[in-house]
Amino acid sequence: MKKILVTGGAGFLGSNLCTKLLEKNFYVIALDNLSTGSMSNIQNLLENKKFEFIKHDIIYPIDLPVDQVFNLACPASPPRYQADPAQTTKTSILGSLNMLELARKNGARIFQASTSEVYGDPDVHPQVEGYRGNVNPIGVRSCYDEGKRCAESLFFDYHRMYGIEIKVGRIFNTYGPKMDPQDGRVVSNFIMQAIQNEPLTIYGDGTQTRSFCYVDDLIDGFLKMMESEVKFLGPVNLGNPDEFNLLELADLVLKLTQSNSKIVFEKLPQDDPTRRKPDISLAKNKLGWEPKICLEDGLRKTIEYFKVKTFSKRKVKNVGYSITP
Ligand code: UDP
Predict the structure, then answer these.
(1) What is the pLDDT of residue 317?
(2) Which atom of ligand 1 is nearest to the CA of 200?
(3) CA dist., res. 15 & res. 101, Å (int)
(4) What count of other Cβ atoms lies within 10 Å of the Cβ of residue 178?
(5) Does the beta carbon of 225 sit less than 6 angstroms from any atom of ligand 1?
(6) How many domains does the chain have?
(7) Same domain as 188, residue 300
């Protein structure tokens, strides 16, 4: 049975990936330092004999016998990755080095969760993989952007130096169940605000755009990329090409939650990208992959998840007893 290592296995994407890999009958080892991931995301997996959780920070080396590695560990929400920017850079760079060493020792194939942030505030639209980006190297986002860019270069260097089988996917904005409602991203913020009848906070004037991918579609892309022909290394864009501005997103969330929340406008964060939309021709051609779930359907499922989570948390609070670690 193939042993698959998932770093960041207790995070939003990692826990969804672990679930899918277990369904496919793989043995799964999840690593997480639990800085932004949560045991509650993997609580239901812990009883599975084919699942193992190790609390570990990938900035330190680790030796494990594995056949494949999905390197997902890194805080990904701007407020979270900016909270300790040096740690964020270390996670991308030292973490990638440690995971590449692990892959080299095991002869394992390794997938890197890269990001649309490598394009910075793009002046090519939609973004194609050949575009080299417009990143501010000294800005508040650079710990993440430059860390992930450097990680990509490490992956390609390890491939050139040691012939390691690498797979690099550039992930665009993703949402869905197991997102941390507190992590400060726009989809989770808007949904939480709407279901609690608080004002929806739009940063700037709301004309900036993003393209939101439902998590199941993204995980399907990860698996297709990992299983793709050996000579296809990427980088490949993985995201939903349907582009929305934030005013449209806010309206849709208000409609689907039937909320009476108002919209308030707040200061735009520094270096906030103006437009973002993936060109996914490469993923279509090489992986036969494209997202299937539209924003409205995906939001419905996510709203349902957040409602249940918020409701059960409230119940837990009332009796003064917490079941979530
Ligand atoms: N944003 C917003 N309100 C919020 C949170 C985020 O208007 O409560 C904006 C943010 O400034 C950005 C977009 O929504 O323009 C997406 O932000 P997010 O943090 O979700 O991801 P990013 O694409 O910036 O990494």
Answers:
(1) 40
(2) 8
(3) 24
(4) 21
(5) no
(6) 2
(7) yes
